[in-house]
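Problem 12. The chain below contains 142 residues. Write out its predicted structure in token notation.
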Amino acid sequence: MSGTGMIVPSFSAIVERYLAGQPVGRLATATPQGVPHVAPLCYANDHDLLYINTDMESKKGRNITKNNRVAFIVDEYLSWEKNRGVIILGRAEFKRKGLLFRKGRDLIYAKYPKWKETWPIEENESDVLVIRPTKVIDWGLT
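Solution.
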């Protein structure tokens, strides 16, 4: 439960495994005027949160600093009869240091081993976007 008295969902075991096994998702943000922006991104997750290494000065970063409500989708179209995925609605915030920054960085490095040498994520220099789900919708995962 969060400090607002609102129950914040965590990922079910099946959703957590699905997210961990997929390489890319798409992040939807919106400007303060409501203009949508969608970008494909690599991400990592644990039981409760999503972590993305993206620049606060990017289009999506600027959108989030003014409107932190986001949607994130990871899905697959396997056939007409079989498709599956997860939509996560939530609130996003940037971290430049601290426990969530380090946890996100470590999870990103574990999921994408070349990331550490190719795009180092340094405290006080890099941004880790942390998404806290407010709603999780999944389909076709069983």
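Discussion. The chain has four helices and seven strands. Students who got a different answer should revisit the alignment rule from Section 12.3.
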